[in-house]
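User: Quick one: structure for sequence A, then sequence B.

Assistant: Sequence A:
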Amino acid sequence: MLTHQHIRFSVAPMMDWTDRHCRYFHRLLSRRARLYTEMLTTGAVIHGDRARLMAFDAFEQPVAMQLGGAEPAALATSAVLVEKFGYVEVNLNVGCPSDRVQDGAFGACLMREPARVGDCIKAMKDAVAIPVTVKCRIGVDDQDPEKALFTLAEACVESGADALFVHARKAWLKGLSPKENRDVPPLDYALVHRLKRALPDVPISINGGLTRIAEMQEQLQFVDGVMIGRAAYHDPALLLEVDPQLFGQSAPVANLFDAVDAFLPYVERELAKGERLSAMTRHLLGLFAGMPGARSFRRRLALEAVKPGAGVETLLGAVNEVRTAIARFAEAEAGNPPPTPNLPKPPDLNSPRAPPKWRSPRVAARRRARRPCSRQSAFSRGW
């Protein structure tokens, strides 16, 4: 059974971002966060390379799989496979507005079809024992958000949905790109709060625009959980605060440097299997955001991790850029700035002017010819 504590904090499913390497590193930063896969369509789960698409490390748990689809039978079959792989939850995507998703008539398009969503939920609930949840928007296009969200939520709950994750924005299927749909439509947290009051027994998590722990703590006064996406990816240091601030437990590692050290054995194992270093380190580019040396860290990883044969020494070298920059900053703060490079000595303005260098008559004539002539001389020459 899915409880309120299970969804108190989660990292949203994000296409091209929350793959198994990303989730492993995030788990090093928080033991309590609920992690989600990238969305997989029912076609990919049923007909694709499941070993490659669905495999994960047991260390990632608790981890949930998000499915994309609109056919109850296909979703039920996919949910069975998700359960067999060991995921703790299956989540239905009813919020993605991308063109590819629209072409398949699922994702945010399903906000218009609450009855179909209910059928999909029921088919999955009948097929598996793990929790079945829904991630949705508050509406699409010209829908009235209050009516659209409440109607969808009621259909999901009646069909047995175990929890709702609500992105507190509309999605505009025409006129806005997926990126714009993450920022442009205004947030309506109050609507999600009203939904929670109407469904007090249903675990409800809020998503959208949350970037700081204080903001999350405020939302937890009204709903059961918070789900964050880009904030966790671009600034993973945020996850170090989750366990102490939201669960009253100590963080699994003391700092970001210890997190990298803990990540190294995993990196070495994956490299030995033939994985590229850049496939793992691309998720670390935002790790030291705002710290001295962060730019050098990102640049070094971006340029060197993609090279054939790049190994853990590349990652360690990039981290050392931050360590060195922090040490220099500390020295400067303590009043012991690092030695400056030898620069040319500035001229002494009080010393007598040195005599001009000798020039040949020909050079001197050319210099005089390039000088602008005075108004009087120009007039006298008839210019």
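Sequence B:
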Amino acid sequence: MHVDRFCSMDLKYTDFHMARPYGNESGLGWGGGDGTVAGEQLSGGAQWSNQPRRRGDGVMLPNVRGVITAHEGAEVFFDLTGRIDFVERDGEIFGRQLLMTLFESEDERYTWLNNKVCMAEGTINPRTLTMHFEAIHAKAT
């Protein structure tokens, strides 16, 4: 199996709301934002929203859906699901993201993505609400 870097994504929340209605760490959220996608096979601007759940141990379970408008105008939709756990590094808290990523498009230049499952690994800064991650996909050799 051969693993290829597909693209990097830089996303920023423009709005985020979180509720913990049960008196503990568990809860739910809603937010949205924009960002950029950069890669040899896909690049452009992104708009997205997230409806995450928060587990009792503080781990976030993102449920992101969005659309990338590629530089040539094609639309590529994406889903991000997985886990984000928060750890301390150099005196700052940050979230480690491990995400399953699906891309889909009706544009024939990107329909090859419709049957790919990608993984993304990255970080989120809870103070600035910015995320950076790298999406990869595997090919059989």
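The beta strands are 2-19, 27-38, 44-50, 53-54, 60-61, 63-70, 75-89, 92-104, 118-125, 130-139. The chain has no helices and ten strands.

User: Thanks, that's what I needed.
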